[in-house]
Model the fold of this input.
Amino acid sequence: MANVVLSATGLNAYFGAVHAVRDASIEFREREVTAIIGPSGCGKSTLLRCLNRMHETVPGGRVTGRVEFHGQDLYGPDVNPIEVRRHIGMVFQRPTPFPTLSIRDNVAAGLRAMRRADRPPRADVDRIVERSLQDAALWDEVKDRLRTGAIGLSGGQQQRLCIARALATSPSVLLLDEPTASLDPISTQKVEELVYDLRQHFTVVIVTHNMQQAARVSDRTAFMLNGELVEVAPTNKLFTTPSDPRTEAYVTGRFG
Amino acid sequence: MMRRKIANVVMLALMWLAAAIVLLPLFAILARLVMQGWSSLNLDFFTKEPLSPGSTGGGMANSIVGSLILLFIASLSGLPVGIGAGIYLAEHRTAPVAKLVRFLADVLNGLPSIVIGIFAWEMLVKPVHHFSALSGGIALGVMMIPLTARTTEEMIRTVPTSLREAALALGYTNWRTSLAIVARTALPGIVTGALVALARVAGETAPLLFTALGNNFWSVSPTQPIDALPLRLFLYATSPYDDWNRQAWAASIVLIALVLLISIAARIAARPRFGKAVD
Done:
């Protein structure tokens, strides 16, 4: 059984008075892909954003409970959220390349944000950029145009660029928030294959509203409903023999 | 059917007329300027200093350079404050302080420029008993603050929140996200706003009347009175000498050309570096 890298215990998240995640507890294991599924507005993205302390950047966003990363409480008093986000990378629903930067500089953007002591030497940056782009299955498509603007890439390429950018800082966990929601089917397939391969090196948490996608790419799946984490199980089991009747109703398509 | 077509033609004609009326004064002014001032636009005009009253010849080299120095001081003093305030307004758009600052910036923007001149005189000239280029430049800089603050805010607001989140998720600190990603993305627009503000104050006369004062002689010292094109223009246009009147027209042409150049620079600056920007 793989080690638990990241876990939430008794996690609650709020937007002002809205209670978006209710008392959620879940473990994420090393080098596994965990999918979080559920109908729109069930709190799955919010749960994900609690894991790298992004939820609190939204006005009115508030979190209670524990999130442990390698045994350390990320919401502890001495924890710097900036540090957390360097170790737990995130990719969003819509591709967000930095429009003023070239492809290369986009990938290297996270490195530049590091403290001087942690930052890799300048000579290594090109190597890291290449490795990250290769890990994100984008290298062959962009290797001849690294100095051109990232805006010129297609939507699917932009999303893989964002994944490469998140990988460049060598995070141990990668959070993907509906990474294929704005992509066409072929780009979606490429990103899915990529997610499947990423588990060799990274722990991945992927939020998706697409159950087939969860079934294709994940080892374990969590089902959320109305802010509540209903069930977490190996993906196969959750889709074939769920223990909770609400999960069964959802995965068999009776609602959602 | 017929009535609708007639109404269409009539309304269209009215629109054309309105458009022509908008353009007419501009072309009338430009034509008049060129007719009256072109003959005085010679090398002397750009290289010589003014002669004593009544004598023919001389130029405005000191006024042109003076104007450029004043605009430089204005940019140096006004832009950092204006752009900084704009970034603050955009980042804390709903904070009570931001609402107050936004309101005050609008008030400052509507303030008659002569009032800003009096204020600059009170603060920068009266205490040292000396007119100076510095006080004039700062008076112009104060006028640039509300303009750049509001355009900077508007431009930063066009940067999608998703970009800010992406930077934060990469481990960027808040201030670094604001400057290196958000403000950087909005930079072409911010530069455009700054240049528009610069073009706006380039022709200001009132704030300079009792700060920069004007100077008949060559001076580039920030602590001494300095000449400026609008000041020289005002002096020459209201003088009884024909040659000075002609030179005033020439000064108008140069002033308008200066503003035009800044505006063109603003257009060029607005072009994004890599093709079109994200939606």
